[in-house]
Specification:
42% of the residues lie in helices and 16% in strands. The termini are far apart. By secondary structure, it is α/β, with parallel strands linked by helices. A 7-stranded parallel beta sheet has the order 3-2-1-4-5-6-7, with helices on both faces.
Length: 262
């Protein structure tokens, strides 16, 4: 059973097996925390850390490019907490796919579909399932952090699907924030750009074909000049923002801006 005493804190993290997602989970593995990771792969190192830390970690190997079943499964799993809701419940939508860095007409249709489904549809469905399942938890502090990108706010050639997914994430977060503000104990939701983090996605961009991806050199220089944030540092900054009292005051944020500045 997934039921937990009121003193516990529940976290759901997507894209949890590597990069920023794995760093978020690693830092959330603390006594009294119940953590659910959702990713295509199981992370043995995180499981070993959980076993040694006193935290409860569950990992679901799921493909978020097929998001309906994971969202339904999440809602059902959260329902197991109804008898003893946790003190707080947080969904972190971190999963995303950059796809092939190339002009839109040169990217395979299947890759475009996967990028939009994993990066936008999954976040939308999981947020819906989370809000529905936790809506009756009157004393629970509920939060949703959507990991967006500056590319949701600034277009970049060669990355149309990723830009579209992140722009959609920002805008659905605005809409949901309005809905939740009108409800008693509504959840707080923020779509936040995390800065430039040294993940496999960054490696993919700086290794792209420069003839198809004109901004390749800019990403290569960010790496060469040591201007990328490590996943661990990025996770630490995001979790500090998540726990701040002002979280949710504005639904759109950038980790590089002061707290509360849209």
């Amino acid at each position: 059973m997934a039921s937990a005493p009121r003193s516990r804190h529940l976290y759901i993290v997507t894209g949890s097996s590597r990069g920023l997602g794995a760093a978020l989970v690693a830092q959330l593995l603390q006594p009294g925390h119940v953590v659910l990771g959702m990713a295509r792969r199981f992370n043995d190192a995180l499981q070993a850390q959980a076993d040694a830390s006193g935290a409860a970690l569950t990992q679901w190997p799921v493909d978020l490019a097929e998001p309906l079943m994971p969202a339904e499964r999440l809602a059902a799993w959260l329902g197991e907490f109804d008898a003893a809701p946790p003190a707080s419940a947080t969904l972190i939508n971190n999963a995303g796919l950059v796809g092939l860095p190339a002009p839109l007409g040169e990217v395979p249709l299947a890759e475009l579909s996967q990028a939009l489904r994993a990066g936008l549809e999954a976040a939308l469905l999981l947020t819906s399932g989370f809000l529905r399942a936790t809506g009756g938890w009157a004393a629970t502090d509920r939060r949703v952090m959507n990991i967006s990108s500056g590319l949701g706010r600034r277009a970049m050639a060669g990355s149309a699907a990723y830009c579209a997914a992140k722009a959609g994430m920002d805008h659905f977060s605005r809409a949901v924030a309005l809905e939740q503000a009108a409800q008693a104990n509504g959840a707080r939701i923020v779509s936040i750009a995390p800065g430039v983090i040294d993940t496999e996605m960054q490696a993919q961009l700086r290794g792209a074909d420069a003839t198809r991806f004109p901004e390749r050199e800019r990403f290569a220089q960010l790496h060469a000049q040591g201007l990328l944030t490590s996943p661990a540092d990025g996770a630490s900054q995001l979790l500090a923002r998540l726990q701040h009292a002002d979280f949710g005051r504005e639904p759109i944020a950038d980790i590089r801006d002061p707290i509360g500045k849209p």
